[in-house]
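> example.struct
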């Protein structure tokens, strides 16, 4: 019995480590790819490629879940080809997530990875508010207090004069914070909307993911040609891609899948530790790689955010406990889907 508990604890610590490293590595690597001055790739194509990979991974998992190719085909025929209303329903979060994922690129083109990592935690109060309004749930007084502290910490970070001295590309912090705000709103709404759709039927999570990713590919592909159409035709769809860009796409594609599995074996406290640790790692990496100059204001703000994330995930004694879930289609951290 003791040995089983030790194995369980080690597995949870392993999950915590991987979730933290994926979140931090994704943010830092994406920031780095947006600071180079030559052969800049099209962010819209990266988002589209990520959707394709997620769809393929979801198909593989659904095939394993159904057990045979014939059952897989029947499931797809019934839930994809034969369910236009459900496909239309899932096109809503697809559109919102497409906007969110592209906003992440805009934000990290104008903000340091550490500043983005801290500010993006506003997704917690945004998702909480959407959950209260859309799912009729409630938050404890401690959770509301944590939300207040988190917002205060983010405000301090935004007003911090911290600068990255080794980044030579032109940046606009106002545009960056605006992009984060849009991404946060999209994350909160789409996450709760997707959760509501999941709980409205017994349809498999992976079927829902496939429905959403098919719509997502259509939406993001349209975004490629509406935003960068002429340049893509002239230079090519994969212009500017290198091993680091592929690594970013890899993290975005499989990170959510891994998280969706390991979250079953962790809790809100561990997820809080993971988010706080990712902030610390991103900050250290920003200092070493981008020459970020940490100020007292930034340090206090980041500390408040880390504390609020931890206290928000503390267990509640009543039955109205809220559990925030963030689905897959987010280029950043996800709790459901691939």
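> example.seq
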């Amino acid at each position: 019995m003791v040995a089983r508990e030790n194995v369980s604890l080690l597995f949870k610590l392993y999950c915590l480590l991987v979730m933290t490293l994926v979140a931090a590595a994704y943010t830092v690597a994406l920031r780095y790819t947006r600071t180079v001055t030559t052969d800049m790739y099209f962010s819209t194509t990266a988002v589209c490629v990520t959707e394709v990979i997620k769809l393929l991974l979801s198909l593989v998992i659904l095939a394993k879940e159904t057990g045979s190719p014939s059952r897989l085909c029947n499931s797809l025929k019934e839930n994809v080809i034969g369910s236009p209303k459900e496909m239309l329903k899932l096109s809503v979060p697809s559109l919102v997530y497409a906007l969110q994922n592209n906003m992440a690129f805009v934000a990290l083109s104008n903000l340091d990875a550490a500043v983005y990592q801290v500010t993006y935690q506003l997704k917690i109060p945004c998702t909480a508010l959407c959950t209260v309004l859309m799912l009729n749930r409630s938050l404890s007084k401690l959770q509301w207090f944590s939300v207040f502290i988190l917002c205060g910490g983010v405000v301090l970070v935004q007003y911090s004069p911290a600068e990255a001295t080794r980044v030579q590309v032109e940046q606009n912090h106002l545009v960056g914070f605006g992009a984060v705000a849009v991404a946060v709103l999209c994350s909160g709404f789409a996450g709760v909307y997707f959760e509501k759709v999941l709980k409205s039927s017994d349809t498999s999570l992976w079927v829902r993911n496939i429905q959403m990713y098919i719509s997502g590919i259509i939406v993001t592909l349209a975004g490629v040609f509406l935003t960068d159409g002429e340049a893509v035709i002239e230079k090519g769809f994969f212009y500017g891609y290198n091993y680091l860009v592929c690594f970013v796409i890899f993290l975005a594609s499989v990170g959510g899948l891994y998280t969706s599995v390991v979250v079953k074996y962790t809790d809100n406290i561990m997820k809080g530790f993971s988010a706080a640790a990712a902030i610390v790692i991103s900050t250290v990496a920003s200092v070493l790689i981008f020459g970020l100059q940490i100020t007292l204001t930034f340090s206090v703000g980041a500390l408040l955010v880390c504390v609020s994330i931890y206290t928000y995930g503390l267990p509640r004694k009543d039955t109205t406990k809220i559990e925030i879930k963030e689905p897959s289609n987010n280029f950043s951290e996800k709790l459901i889907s691939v």
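> remarks
The two ends are 33 Å apart (CA to CA).
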